[in-house]
Structures are given as C-alpha cells and as structure tokens.
Automatic annotation (TrEMBL):
The keyword Mitochondrion applies. GO terms for biological process: calcium import into the mitochondrion; mitochondrial calcium ion homeostasis. InterPro entries: EF-hand-dom_pair, EF_Hand_1_Ca_BS, EF_hand_dom, MICU1/2/3. The lineage of its organism: Eukaryota, Metazoa, Chordata, Craniata, Vertebrata. This is MICU3 protein. It is found in: Mitochondrion inner membrane; Mitochondrion intermembrane space. Coiled coil: none annotated. GO terms for cellular component: mitochondrial intermembrane space; uniplex complex. SMART domains: EFh. One of its GO terms (molecular function) is calcium ion binding. The keyword Mitochondrion applies. It comes from the Eukaryota. The gene is Micu3. It comes from Cephalopterus ornatus (Amazonian umbrellabird). PROSITE patterns: EF_HAND_1, EF_HAND_2. Keywords: Calcium, Disulfide bond, Membrane, Metal-binding, Mitochondrion, Mitochondrion inner membrane, Repeat, Transit peptide.
Length: 403
C-alpha cells in the first residue's frame, strides 16, 4: 500500500467534487497516477461511499501488463463486462468522466459522441482520436479548478492525469456564460476542426507519456492499432447502461423477477434533491395498497425515458402542458412521442402515485420534471438515507386528512 497517503489527504481541499469522488473510490496507483478498477467504478455509481476505507495499492509494471493482457476485445463485450473484470482493470480519471456521461445519455446521443471522436469522418475511431477525449475533459476541468496553492494543484493534476499540465486552456471562452455546463456539452461544443487539430497534435505526446488502460485495450487492442466502429461503440455504451441498471435492480429484487413499487421509488428518489423523501414514499404506499411489482423491462424502459428527459420536456411544451398538470394518458403519449419508449400502464400509475403529491391524479412540471432533472447528477451526488417503513396508522391518518 502506498506510504505517505496522509501527506496527500490535504489535496482533497483543492479538488472539485467530481475529483473528490474519484479519489474516494479509486483503489490503484501507478507511477503517481490514480486509477479505479471496474469494481470501483460500479461502486461509485451505485453506492454513497466505499464499503470500506480505500487504500491506493501501488501496481508494478508487471502487474499492470498482466491486467491489460487479460482485457477482452470489444467484440467480446457484454452487459456483465465490468462485473466480470471486477478488480482486474484500470480506469483513469478522464475515462471515469466519460463513463459517467454515458450513463445518463439517450441512445440518440451515442451517434453524436461517436462522430465527435471520428475527426476524419471515416466512420472509424482510432486510439489517437479517442485520446482527444483526455484533452477535452482536462481542459474543461481546468475551468473548474479551485484556486489556491499552485503546487498542490500540480500534485493533484499528476494524480488525476499522470502528467503535469499547463494552466493555459485551448478551450477559449469569451465570457463565463459561454462555458458549457457539463462534460457532455463540452464534447458537443468542442467540435471545431481547429480545436481538434490542436488537441490531436497533443494526443501524440499524451499517448507516448501515458500508460494504457483497460478501456484503451478493450477498444483498440493490445497493440493499440485496432479501430472502433460505431456498432461496437454503441454496444459498449448500451451494455454499460444496462449493466448498472441490472446491478441496481438485482440489489433490490432478492432473486425475484420484480422489485416492489416502494423499492422503485427508493431508486428514483435517491438521485434527487428532495429533502422530505418520506412523504413521497408514504403517499405511494397509501395509494398502492396491493403490491404488483416492477419488472426489469419496465425498470429499464423508464430509465431509458429519463435519459431523454430533455426531449420529453420539449414534447410537453409542444402539447402546451409545460406549466400545467397532465394526466396518465397524456403522460404516456408525450413519452412515446418524445422518446419512442412505451411505458406500461402500471409503471405510469406507479410514477404518478410517487410524484403526485397533491393527489389529483395529475403531474405538474414542478412535481416531476423539476425533481427528475436532479437525477442527471447521478454518480456524483451522494445518496440520502430514506426511511423504508411506515405504520399502517400513518397511512390511514394521511388518507383521512386528505379528504
């Protein structure tokens, strides 16, 4: 285990919230740079904090090479890739940011992402093009850096990126209002040929100075000469979304084919800024007295819909419902028009029972979209403790007072 970790703990003060979370879950260190294992990454997006205190274990060159040698090629990918790799993999900080982006993006955005990497337009992405991602996210991160001791910031950059970085940014901005709000926005807006040309030149230097990772070997082979086509890229992104959803679903299903409506509510609410979650859960328990259960297909379809929440909001505006409440039939139609996803009547009814606080069988913008937008911070915002049980008397009391 790396000695002197306590000497580096104060670097946490100079880290952004995302950097802090990465450092909290990362468990490996190689030549001064921190890495997550696939298990660490899954834990970081499904748990509030590590199950046990993490210590950065130093990898030898031989150990790293052995890990990379056992990395499967992209055509052997599946929705169990991260679980199968478990501790046998290394994920860098910029790759962590990339993977977080994937989790909350609609399938239509997969093509946009691929085209961003495919700078020469040949429908294939090579290793050099993919490494441009490292620079785009690093440049974006520089804009969020906390001011303070430059020596400490330099040490932190070395931990996160594996090399010292200049403070001047290639991603120029004319004003604060023009800075993209998310890493995905950065990727979409950083597509000028001049920018990619500049970053691509630097990618050569980065490639020669950085060690390979599990993701790089998975995509581009052990020699780094393979190219990634859109079908494989799409499959990887879809598999990752599915894998995280499967892990969450299985953690509540206890081997059954369904999870309870209450557990479904738990999973939705723990990604939000809602303070009084118990009132939502109590409202749902009183409104759905007989448990029917939510299947994985229903569970997955709803999260696919949430990844299209922005398009759904537009659809609601087109229907002129943005500032008004809507019923279940209108909700289902708007979801299908915006996303092509068909939600089951039981799933829609469950959603209404969770978020329909005033119990008028209508959902307002504030009741649903305003809350669900917080979910886009998944993997970054910590979970809140939620009271799982209530008494039958409290349900009866609430029912009486609501009449």
């Amino acid at each position: 285990v790396t000695e002197g970790r306590s000497d580096l703990e104060d670097l946490h003060l100079y880290a952004t919230p995302r950097e802090q979370r990465f450092r909290m879950f990362a468990s490996l260190e190689f030549e001064g740079q921190l890495y997550m294992t696939p298990h660490d990454f899954i834990q970081s997006v499904t748990s509030d904090e590590p199950k046990c205190a993490k210590k950065w274990r130093s990898l030898s060159k031989q150990e790293l090479n052995q890990i990379l040698m056992e990395t499967p090629p992209v055509w052997k990918g599946s929705s169990k890739l991260f679980r199968n790799l478990n501790e046998k993999g290394v994920i860098s900080y910029t790759e962590y940011l990339f993977l977080l982006c994937i989790l909350t993006k609609p399938h239509a955005g997969f093509r946009i992402a691929f085209n961003m990497f495919d700078t020469d337009g040949n429908e294939m992405v090579d290793k050099k093009e993919f490494l441009v991602l490292q620079e785009i996210f690093r440049k974006k991160n520089e804009k969020r850096e906390k001011r303070g001791d430059e020596e400490k910031r330099a040490m932190l950059r070395l931990q996160l990126y594996g090399y010292h970085t200049p403070t001047n940014s290639v991603l120029k901005r004319e004003g604060e209002d023009l800075v993209p709000r998310s890493y995905w926005d950065t990727l979409r807006r950083s597509t000028s040929q001049a920018l990619f040309s500049d970053l691509a030149e630097r990618a050569d230097d980065i490639s020669s100075s950085l060690s390979d990772t599990t993701l790089l070997v998975h995509f581009f082979g052990k020699k780094g000469k393979a190219e990634l086509n859109f079908e494989d890229f799409y499959r990887f992104m879809d598999n990752l979304q599915t894998e995280v959803l499967e892990i969450e679903f299985l953690s509540y299903s206890n081997g059954m084919n369904t999870i309870s409506e209450e557990d479904f509510a738990h999973i939705l609410l723990r990604y939000t800024n809602v303070e009084n979650t118990s009132s939502y859960l109590e409202n749902m328990r009183c409104s759905i007295p007989e448990e029917k259960g939510i299947t994985f297909d229903e569970f997955r379809s709803f999260f696919q819909f949430l990844n299209n929440l922005e398009d759904f909001t537009i659809a609601m505006q087109m229907y002129n419902f943005a500032s008004r409440s809507i019923g279940q039939d209108e909700f289902k139609r708007a979801v299908y028009v915006a996303t092509g996803v068909k939600l089951s009547p039981h799933l829609v009814n469950t959603v209404f029972k969770i978020f329909d606080v005033d119990r008028d069988d209508q959902l307002s913008y504030k009741e649903f979209i305003g809350i669900m937008k917080d979910r886009l911070n998944r993997g970054f915002r910590g979970y809140k403790p939620i009271q799982r049980y209530t008494t039958f008397k409290s349900c009866v009391r609430k029912e009486l007072y609501s009449r």
